Amino acid sequence: MRQDYTAVKNIYIVCGKTDMRKGIDGLATFVQDHFELDP
């Protein structure tokens, strides 16, 4: 299945490690807390 990313305004690439065991809610909270972004 292909995705259409033409409407995406910004893409953020962050180097480092992420604990993927946190699940989507934990990762969304991490983004909000550390990068002050709205996932």
Q: How would you describe this structure to a colleague?
A:
The chain has 39 residues and is an all-alpha fold. It contains 1 helix and no strands. The model has no long low-confidence stretch (mean pLDDT 84).
Give the topology.
Blueprint: H1 23-35
Distance, first to last CA: 23 Å
Q: Let me know the average pLDDT.
A: 84
Specify the overall morphology: extended
Low-confidence region ranges: none
Order of helices and strands: H
Count, helices: 1
Relative strand content: under 5%
Measured as a percent range, the helix fraction is 25-40%
Number of strands: 0
Structural class: mainly alpha
State the major sheet: none
**Rg over alpha carbons:** 12 Å
What's the quick description here?
The protein has 39 residues and is an all-alpha fold. It has one helix spanning 23-35.
Supply database-style keywords.
mainly alpha; extended; IS66 family insertion sequence element accessory protein TnpB; Transposase_IS66_Orf2
